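Case study 2.
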Amino acid sequence: MAQRTVLVVLFDAVQSLDVTGPVEVFTGAEKHTPGTYRVRTASLDGAPVRTSSGLTVVPDRALTAARAPDTLIVPGGEGSRHPDPRLIDWLREHGPRARRLVSVCTGAILLARAGLLDGRRATTHWAYCDRLARDHPAVDVDPDPIFVRDGRVATSAGVTAGIDLALALVEEDLDRDAALTVARHLVVFLRRPGNQAQFSAQLAAQTARRAPLREVQRWISEHPGADLSVESLAARAGFSPRHFARAFQAETGTTPGRYVDRVRLEHARRLLEDTGDGVEEVSRVSGYGTPEAMRRAFVKALGTSPAEYRRRFRPAPVR
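Prediction:
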């Protein structure tokens, strides 16, 4: 297997974890399987850059001296919002030469400005998805997943999602064992698929202003297998069902039914990932009632069955 060069672009006010997260993953994979990756960093003029958190990073070389890499990684950060035009020109010229083009967080904005995301599906940090879609209408922006693959181009959401994407690329290049070894070394889980949402149900929904509705949100999260019909939840809050449904949506930004669906899906996924409980038991305690009902929910939301989800995303036992 030929050694793959991974080149990470640096610029002033870059987000440090957008850089170091993928770098640690690929260098970890090189340690696990020597001869697989050669990780390098480069800035426009080869000069040190100061990250958005104040750290100074010394690149290996200037971008003008860098050869076309196998994988080109473009991180995000404050500097991606007002980039040096020379960086955009370099990406426009050299980005197409890489076998694989990757962005972390708002690095997607740099790729879009270089025209490298036109006609492609992409994501970025949730706070900048609207801006990316507005400023670059030729890009199909999906604000939900933690990372998106579209052919040779991969884009990821904020900060730690770059680690998830890098682990997925290592698994693709090498094998699952190599990616699991790196994940264990970094004390992260190799189990966040790209279609996992950037937010959990509790984070995606707003916290209700009124105490009775906040209590209902807590109850739903702690009792996914209970009767979570609108009538039951309304009674717990002391509202009529109609008033409860309207108030819940007004204060959380989602309907009770959608909130319950998301909580149950997350609960079932955690059980499939973290326990050896059978699918029938998981479906029962997660509120689906039957394995078939849970299977339909998984296929609709994730495009895979519970059994396949467990096979792909439950970490192997540490030996």
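The CA atoms of residues 46 and 62 lie 4 Å apart.
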